[in-house]
Amino acid sequence: FICFSLKYFGKKEKQNRIIQNTVNFIKSSAKAENINDIYYPGEKSYLNRQKNLKNGVDIPEYVWKKVLNLT
Q1: Per-residue pLDDT reduced to its tens digit, 7-63
Q2: How many angstroms separate the Cα of 47 from the Cα of each of 1, 29, 41, 52, 54?
Q3: Residue 40 near residue 27 (C-beta atoms within 8 A)
Q4: CA angle 5-10-12, nearest 5°?
Q5: Is the pLDDT of residue 67 over 70?
Q6: Which residues in 58-68 are b (16+ Cβ under 10 Å) and which e?
Q7: Cβ-proximal residues to 19 (8 Å cutoff; 6+ apart), any chain
């Protein structure tokens, strides 16, 4: 988890530049063996949310049957 208090970073343009530089630094770090991507905290959750909003959420059939039986 990363938290920034933006009031200390000046104007919006400077804030965006600092954040982008931080993300670029994290993403350009050396990767451990067998690691393809480096994610900043919360990025995987964000990417999963975007995918789910676009494609819907996969629900196992046994769970869906239980939901249908609730009615």
Answers
A1: 888 888 988 998 899 899 989 999 999 999 999 888 999 999 999 999 999 999 999
A2: 15, 20, 12, 9, 11
A3: yes
A4: 90
A5: yes
A6: eeeeeeeeeee
A7: 4
pLDDT at position 64: 93
Contact call for residues 9 and 15 (beta carbons, < 8 A): yes
For residues 50, 1, 34 and 21, what is the CA-based torsion angle, rounded to 10 degrees? 80
Which tokens hold the place of 6? 């933006």
Place of tokens 């938290």: 3
Whether 49 and 36 have beta carbons less than 8 Å apart is answered as no
Give the CB-side neighbour count of residue 54, counting CA atoms within 13 A.
Answer: 6
